[in-house]
Amino acid sequence: MNKLYIGNVSAEASEEDLESIFKQWKIQHSGPFLVKTGYAFVDCPDEKTAMRAIDVLSGKVELHGKVLEVEHSVPKRQRSCKLQIRNIPPHMQWEVLDGMLAQYGAVESCEQVNTDMETAVVSVRYATRDQARLAMEKLNGSMMENYALKVSYIPDETAAPEGPPSGGRRGFNARGPPRSGSPGLGARPKVQSDIPLRVLVPTQFVGAIIGKEGATIRNITKQTHSKIDIHRKENAGAAEKPITIHSTPEGCSNACRTIMDIMQKEAVDTKFTEEIPLKILAHNNFVGRLIGKEGRNLKKIEQDTGTKITISPLQDLTLYNPERTITVKGSIDACSRAEEEVMKKIRESYESDMAAMNLQSNLIPGLNLNALGLFPSGAPGMGPSMANVPPPGAHGGCSYGGQPESETVHLFIPALAVGAIIGKQGQHIKQLSHFAGASIKIAPAEGMDAKQRMVIIVGPPEAQFKAQCRIFGKLKEENFFGPKEEVKLEAHIKVPSFAAGRVIGKGGKTVNELQNLTCAEVVVPRDQTPDENDQVIVKISGHFFACQLAQRKIQEILTQVRRQQQQQQQPKPPSGAQPPIPRKK
């Protein structure tokens, strides 16, 4: 991958011009420039130099009034299933990247490319050409935490004529060689598990696990290549606190073993005489398969590891706390072995459920179904690790990764339903906010006789889906709609005034297509005065899935508009090919 294609080359450009630019930017090349009409080719001495040329020159350097486009030179026959994705935010978590890539097809491998750039680069192989083509179309230029992703084909030496897809399902199939590192997380020898390990620890040991100024927890995360969240503020006053560990299965087990060792030492130092069992939290959906028919799976784990295992009763479950507590008693070595076996069973169940869910991955475009908790993993209110949305009040000893882009939706409910949504002493709305990973507030009534109240929901798409789904469901449960009546609500989202026309479309074409596709009523009221942020309202009415699909489609339009606006506003370098301003970290 050392050969470069240089596109958008002016007809006036010569080999000497290109040579001068490479010399100015101190980019080596190992052969002459082959200049054609409108494009050119050149060889670099190694892949790292080629990557630097792409990063420094592509879309940034102008020659004779045209901004050069630089990418890997890939013969048509080798433009198959392999892509390179550049300019990935350096702190992005693998599970978030995995979830994004899986939206477009079955990913067979995803490996990090070592470069000198501050942003991350990965090479991805999809199962089919069509999936790779779709990913390229959707991801190239898309914004990820203020970074514009750059996607290009890379040579696929194994490319063969397209045949019927072997796997068929979307999502991640068997992976290729493991990635050598992770943005912000250092080297990682194996692929991170999509499902975290969740454990409960006695509150009195939390301080020892964190250590002075967080030194102990940082040391654990570094040694085990893991991300650990200690939810200290969750369940104030409770005797136990949950800890969430994200890593490879081996990394999770090593971190868990280290935490057990720390608790044992602290117990000796503080003369704590009670037994400290290992308590693993697992979603109820997986527990039946962990126990097995007539308890056989659980009995085998107990016999193989020399432990005694009990599971909390079903009666302890609630909508907002779907986890069961698996209590393991025995020596630290025995508990550690049992943890490996228990989590192996849970991960197998999760992967089975994910395979089923990925068949439905086209249900609502633009929504990461993995993050909804429909097929659960991780903490209540957190959804799977892909969600990357810690619940309010969750604080960890070590945490990496940015938040998905937040959205604000105003959902209108019957005024009489406000009490049901808030709950006794505000408990329901707090639980709902925690469950969804969103901020949820009820706006003051507009007058004494107001028949509707506005619920303000702030959070990323997956949090919006979960919060709105529960509000629609709660209204049905509390009989605010008849037994045979479908719950239909009105939602408002604000869009930049300059983008309203794109939502409407020429002669109302886009908004009509939206309504036909989603079965929701979509209205952009005319003659609106933009607010102080130069935004106008789009009204969406309908049942839950109609509203969701319409919201996602409108957000998709807004993303395209923002992308085009950013490209137009991007300052062009002067004709002398001056150095671009370096990105701020």
From TrEMBL:
- Give GO terms: molecular function aspect only: RNA binding
Entry-linked SMART domains: KH, RRM
Pfam families reported for this sequence: KH_1 (PF00013), RRM_1 (PF00076)
Which terms under GO biological process does the entry name?
mRNA transport; regulation of translation
Query: Per the record, what is one GO cellular component?
Result: cytoplasm
Q: Where in the cell is the protein located?
A: Cytoplasm; Nucleus
Q: Sorted alphabetically, which SUPFAM superfamilies does this protein's record hold?
A: Eukaryotic type KH-domain (KH-domain type I), RNA-binding domain, RBD
Annotated region (Disordered) at: 158-190, 562-585
Family matches, as InterPro entries: KH_dom (IPR004087), KH_dom_type_1 (IPR004088), KH_dom_type_1_sf (IPR036612), Nucleotide-bd_a/b_plait_sf (IPR012677), RBD_domain_sf (IPR035979), RRM_dom (IPR000504)
**Major subcellular location class:** cytoplasm
Q: Which UniProt keywords apply?
A: Cytoplasm, mRNA transport, Nucleus, Repeat, RNA-binding, Translation regulation, Transport
> Which residues belong to any copy of the RRM domain?
2-75, 81-156
Please note every region of biased composition (Pro residues).
571-585
Comp. bias (Low complexity): 174-189
Give the family, as the similarity comment puts it.
Answer: Belongs to the RRM IMP/VICKZ family.
This chain belongs to the protein called: Insulin-like growth factor 2 mRNA-binding protein 3
Q: What's the name of its gene?
A: IGF2BP3
